[in-house]
Amino acid sequence: MKFDNQTPFPAALELGSTSDIEQLGLLSCRVSYAWDEDGGLSPLPAAEMWPITRAPQIFEGTLLLPDSDFRRQDIDILVFGDAVAPTGKRAREMRVGVASGRFVRQYDVVGDRQWQRLRDDEPWQASTPQPFESVELAECRAFGGKASLDGRQLPFLMNPAGQGFVVEETSIAATPLPNLERMDRRIEKWDDRPVPACLQKPQGGLLLDTSGPGSWEEIGDDGMKLTGAMMRHSFQQAPPDFVCPRGGLGGDMLLKGFDESGLIRFALPPEVAKHERGASAFVEVGALRSSFALRIASLIVLVPDRRLIVGYTAAFRYMMQPRDVRRTILRWSGDTHFTLER
Fold this sequence. Notes:
Strands 2, 3, 4, 7, 19, 24 and 25 form a seven-stranded mixed beta sheet that branches. It is built from two helices and 26 strands. It has three domains: 2-80 and 269-333, no CATH class; 107-136 and 139-198, no CATH class; 206-236, no CATH class. It has helices spanning 216-219, 223-234; strands at residues 2-5, 11-17, 22-35, 41-43, 57-59, 62-64, 75-80, 82-84, 93-100, 103-110, 115-116, 125-126, 134-136, 143-144, 146-149, 152-155, 163-164, 180-182, 243-244, 252-256, 263-267, 278-285, 288-293, 295-302, 307-319, 326-333. Residues 26-308 form the DUF2169 domain. InterPro entries: DUF2169.
């Protein structure tokens, strides 16, 4: 099948077979935007556009998967940035959040702490958080890490790169608490085992849902359930907390705690493109004609650079006939800029 990209944006068409005669087409398009002081989006120059990802690659320690994957069902939201205290202040504790439409996620950010106690017969308590101006929002700051057990290093499976995981009481004093915590599952005791509060997937970690049938609590020792949960999440680029169900995005995105001003708000393109505005695929197979609106599959937010990278996809099937003319045309209709509605 021939592919004709008539847009100014990077795009690719991948083809595969689902049977001897049925073919699957996967169309990906990526648009890189900058947001301005008013929250409007403008496409970057062609030289600064992010290309289509055809193979796994690492960006700032996070694995980015290929853009074309029909098994990816929902919208990945990846936010890169630091938690930043308000202008002119240092914080001991604050909250960061990402919201759009029905999608709302918030984490608590806490200054550096250690376990301490005054007497041996007293319970261990977390020290007062140290004040900070900014905290890196990476998996190394979330709960996890490696604990000492009989002289061996035992990794916390959900996040081996984190901090706070303790097995032997003799290691408590030397183990720092995590800086990122869930609002509803704050660590109270040294042997608590919360699901890590991660904005990106930890490398080598088996991060699952916090509750429900896909959580560690429900899976237990059931290998079949574990395999199913891992398969479901393996095709998504974002951790479970930052996978937005289809239909959940709104017309803007609000970031809390990523900037000295406190709040950042910018426009979002429609989740599903419209024929009068957005990217659409026009497919020709023999005498058959059809069109498909592309939909958002991923949002990568680079807060320090004020950049938003939007990944669009569309999938279609067709019957393979050797003599048929086959062509896919990608077009963008209407304005490529988006204004934030007040």
